[in-house]
Specification:
12% helix; mainly beta; Fumarylacetoacetate hydrolase, domain 2; single chain; globular; 5-stranded mixed β-sheet
């Protein structure tokens, strides 16, 4: 069924890495790590309960994000599609290196609104996701309105806008060491990150609870 409202999971900034930095498969959850190519919004102004018609005034820039997820951990917090344990959902998206971001910041006035940008995800050169931002279930103003209804947005916050069809979960095809993930958004660039085998969580630090 089509969702009736956006669902948000918060993580902290220390899971963010830049372009060309390795995505590390966690040693304790290496087998179901998935990619999610997404447009990211960089908040420029503080705001709460932002009306949809004013939403773009609060966004300083756009960039690309890979919302990497350990599906087995993430989905252990759901039963029949219903979230039962938000902490496990969050943990599946909050391992170190799980939020590659970049390669640059583009201002909204370079594109105009509403946005209609092509977004494409490649794994080892093969197209896995191909869509346009105009096809999103919820518009960007709707997303900003919704998230600001429960969270005060602050400058520097990053809002992820959701991923199109084609994630590995749909075909049970997950990332493995040696893969190269590239996400391209029209007019912004291409975010590239290699995938490597996990090392002890005691070295990287634990995921957020």
């Amino acid at each position: 069924p089509m969702p009736t409202a956006p669902v948000f999971i918060t993580t902290t900034g220390d899971v963010v890495v830049g372009p060309d930095v390795e995505i590390v498969l966690p040693a304790d959850a290496p087998d179901h790590v998935d990619y999610e190519g997404e447009l990211a919004l960089i908040v420029g102004s503080e705001g709460k309960n932002i009306p949809a018609e004013d939403a773009w005034k609060y966004i300083a820039a756009l960039t690309i994000v890979n919302d990497v997820s350990a599906r087995d951990v993430q989905l252990s917090g759901m039963v029949d599609g219903v979230i039962t344990d938000i902490s496990r959902m969050r943990r599946g998206k909050a391992f170190p290196t799980f939020k590659p971001l970049g390669p640059c910041l583009a201002t909204v006035d370079e594109f105009g609104t509403p946005l209609d940008l092509a977004i494409t995800t490649y794994v080892n050169g093969e197209v896995r996701q191909s869509a346009r931002t105009s096809e999103m279930i919820f518009s960007i103003p709707e997303i900003i309105n919704h998230v600001s209804s429960s969270t005060r947005l602050m400058p520097g916050d990053v809002i992820l806008t959701g991923t199109p069809a084609g994630v590995g979960l749909a075909t049970d095809t997950y990332l493995k060491a040696g893969d190269l993930v590239e996400i391209e958004i029209e007019g912004i660039g291409r975010l590239t990150n290699p995938v490597v085998s996990g090392i002890s969580a005691s070295i990287l630090g634990p995921p957020h609870p």
